[in-house]
Amino acid sequence: MSKTPVPPVGRGNFPGRRWLIVALRGLHLVAVIALGALMLGAPPHPAWPPGSAAGAVLATGLVMFGLDLMADRQHLRTAAGLSVLAKFALVAWLALDPAPWLFWAIVVISAVVSHAPASFRHARLC
To answer: pTM (2 decimals)?
Structure first.
């Protein structure tokens, strides 16, 4: 069995980057689920107030976005990068008007873009 080559360490790539992103995605999903539960009427957990769920979604999302920008300065020109900006705008709207349909719109955009073929996600749109 052959090993997958490891990309060279350079700007935006560093040892452990892949596992850091995997961990951040996991934490991000936990925070999104907690926020969604709160938005759908679940009582907040005493150890995790409602603002903490929203803050964790924002913090993990920003760090992942920053890592993507470090790896590719042109990330904002791609479908994936532009979708993140759209999600940030929807999250800001959600903060002002906590409507469940906005939460679900963000989830659907995230699922579609993250599972789309790489040729779409990384396509330069502008």
So the answer is: 0.82
